[in-house]
Amino acid sequence: MSAPLRVRGLDLVRVMLRSFLLQAVWNPERQQGAGFAFALRPILRRLVGREGEAAALARHVGYFNTHPAFASYALGAVGRMEADRAHGAEIPAEAVDRAKATLGPALAALGDSLMWSTLRPVSAALGVTWVMAGSPYGPLLFLLLYNAIHLYVRARGVVVGWQRGLGFWEESMRRRLRRLSIALRVCAVLGAVALADAMVRHVAAAPSSTAPGALVIGAGLGLAWGEGRRLSASLVGLGLFSLALAWATLVR
């Protein structure tokens, strides 16, 4: 087999683009395994050539499952491990399998919390707020807000995983992700407040003059209660909406 070539930036771009098809061949037995191998193929082909490509792909079609967007971090890190192996590093194939088995659940928990439970409800709340305010661009706002971060995570994950390998999951990275989680939680509460205010004005023809104060108090309570707890943005939004609606309709 010929000497391994250096992985190019274009190969990483191809990995990122292929990651959109991670779940295209999802199945109950191996879940995202085939999609992971498909996404990683540009790196593997660059490293082992066409002669060893089939064997390399076969090692990566096994079970793998994580959040689709945050899978980019695993793709970058595993690609780096494969590159180091191809250039002589003593990394057994079992270590690569263990890395995938460890990264999958960790990234799934992070991605589900940030993307499904926080970012998506926030984007939807702001989009609905625009619609209730009379703008026809609410759905567009939702798509732009959600996909701006979603696409950033997909692209950034491959780069960071490739540059740092398994080291991307170090303490500094976890601190940055925690700060991002807090920031998204604040945005979730603010988005819920905006939606609650729009719905109150829509449902209550003459809301109480103290209704804005109720929204501010509700936002503060939501932030205080959510701090340090695994409280989804949807529950915070539901509580704020209930508080604001009850205050606006009952207190006249």
Category from helices, strands and their pairing: mainly alpha
Question: Based on DSSP secondary structure assignment, what is the total number of beta strands?
Answer: 0
Domains, number: 2
Helix content: over 70%
Report the β-strand fraction as a percent range: under 5%
Uncertain residue ranges:
none
Dominant shape: elongated
Mean pLDDT: 80
Strand-and-helix sequence, N→C? HHHHHHHH
Rounded to the nearest angstrom, the distance between the terminal CA atoms is: 81 Å
Reported for the largest beta sheet, the result is: none
**Quaternary organisation of the protein chains:** single chain
As a whole number of angstroms, the C-alpha radius of gyration is: 23 Å
Compute the number of helices. Answer: 8
Characterize the structure shown.
- The structure is a single chain.
- The chain has helices at residues 9-18, 33-58, 71-86, 93-132, 138-164, 171-203, 211-226, 233-250.
- It has 252 residues and is an all-alpha fold.
- The chain folds into 2 domains: 1-169, no CATH class; 171-252.
- α4 runs antiparallel to α5 (138-164), α6 runs antiparallel to α7 (211-226) and α6 packs parallel to α8 (233-250).
Would you kindly provide a brief summary of this structure?
This protein is mostly helical and 252 residues long.
Essential attributes:
single chain; 252 residues; mainly alpha; 2 domains; 0% strand; elongated
